[in-house]
Amino acid sequence: MSGAGEVGGPVLQVSDLDVDIRLRRSVVHAVRGVSLEVAEGETVGIVGESGCGKSTLGLALAGLLPGNTAVRGSIRLGDRELAGLAERDLRRVRGTEVGIVFQDPMTSLNPTLRIGAQVGEAMRVQLGATKAEARAAAAEMLELVGLPRPAEQLDRFPHELSGGMRQRVVIAAALVCRPRLLIADEPTTALDVTTQAQIMDLFDRLRQTLGMATLLITHDMGVVAGHADRVFVMYAGREAETGRTAEIFGQPRHQYTAALLDSVLRLGTLRKSELATIPGRPPDLTATVTGCPFVPRCPAASAECSAEFPPVSGAGSHHWLCHHPASQDEDSRVTEAPR
Amino acid sequence: MTVSPDVPLLSLVDVTKHYRPGGLLARSAAPVQAVSDVSLDIAAGATLGIVGESGCGKSTLGRVVVGLERPTTGEVRLRGTALSAMSRPQRRTARYDVQMMFQDPYAALNPRMTLARIIEEPLRAKGGLTSQQRRSHVRQLAEETGLAVSQLDRYPRELSGGQRQRVGLARAPSPALIVADEPVSALDVSVRSQILNLMTALQAEHQLSYLMVSHDLTVIHYLADHIAVMYLGQIVESGSPAALFSAPAHHYTRALLDAVPEPVPGRVAPISSIRGELPSASAPPSGCRFRTRCPAAAQLCAEQTPPLREFGRGHRAACHFPLTEPVPVPAADPREAP
Questions:
Q1: 0.90 surpassed by pTM
Q2: Which label site among A5, A6, A8, B308 has the fewest CB atoms less than 10 Å from its CB?
Q3: Chain B CB contacts of A164 below 8 Å
Q4: Is the ipTM above a cut-off of 0.90?
């Protein structure tokens, strides 16, 4: 680890981040005015429906956006500004200080390269390690992520492993240079439930061992509830609400957060009962909206909501951007596991 | 649920499906035992949920039921008649009775057809309706599945995932059974609720049966009247949702339940109970197939295949060392037969 920064200090500081994606005839405002911080050893869950901008946000932070995008605002990793960095410098940061894990391990791994070479690649290319050093580091990392018989796995190819084992390899490759920040975009969505539990447990353990800051991007509220310290709810490219996990799940204030939590199916949900839904669908992000973007789907919307974007309310760790926040008394939502 | 009629809508009787691997070495390689000796009944208007992880054979089972695959041995019976024994016209009718709903409806919809045409196609193939009647039927189906009539001249690519799933339901004209293979796992939570609401409403209105295949226990628990847990091609436990969720007998069912990520802050799925990887379906472990990953496995599990035993009314599990006590084998009581 780089050693800079005190324990628990902010590793990532994003302020007023905008991401525009230029299409042939329109511009998608995928991320709008997002500010967030992630501290050392902390996991922040980014949640929202498909198309809310959460993956674009992750790509922007990783510096992986394609050429037709414009990024404004500030992304600070430690005391370094990443926004506006040249591609060559960015690539170095990406390999060494930021690790990335995507949903489908097969697309992150090169099918023609042996696992040892892939896990050790960042060390050789970015840190100038020798082949032997990289191989030793790769073996150590594979052991850390719980691959059985790591020394034997070094010479195997990705297709020889199961989905869960491949995702472990991807995690090993992302963490081999001991990055300060890990961005995990739907890391368990393609995996079976028992494998998912194992991989999430692995993330928790690695976080304790390596102390990295983690951004966990997912649509799965269950995964976030169990593994994030704080939650950042996104809607239409903007922040809707942010707070400690217990605050978000226990007292959601933004109408969108409340609706999202209400529509989650639980084991305790009455069988074949009418399920809560959110009417309509997320807005078209090419349009510019003056008011709150959730208005067309919101049960509490008023004229005020269409006229003006809601200001930030709340105190301490819990903030929301909603003109008519959900009732604070409605804390019956915090439930114990139903069994 | 009402008392099931004498003849179930659909029965699987000792269904086994083996695949011969293709290619040069096909002769020497062992077959993949995708489904082994599965027997199940689905009553009219009821939902059977099949739960298990990738590679457990649940999707193959669904394909066998809709007739996309022929079982290697065993029988699929529709209203008591084996599919293999049906005459050509009977088989034609059966095809409309059993329809399939896929995880990715996009792959199942012809991209060059409008929605109206896609929904009309099976009606046309079924025959017996004038084009006027078909058109009004298409509008009715669209309305029932929550599609706007104004959308009918659109193409599949213009639709969201949830809307495509609605089209998938609309184009199954008055089926008796819908085989739904992970129908909501690719959808956002709010859209997932909409489709599940639609599936429940259609079932209540038309006495529809579902064979719901999913790895997601919350979805299975919500919709299924009876649940079968599959592991490596076999049913290891089956029973009502209440029985399975409150008192699972099989260690694999327990592990699946433990792994469900519930949206409760700080609740972390325990991972201790299950270890290792799914063994190969071409060389399944001897005895109990789950023994290589089971926390309670002993010598006996490797030597003998555990039989399915009763753990309560309609609740059966195949485990030598179950988590609950099996019902002692009673003196024969003809009324208690399932």
A1: no
A2: A6
A3: 277
A4: no
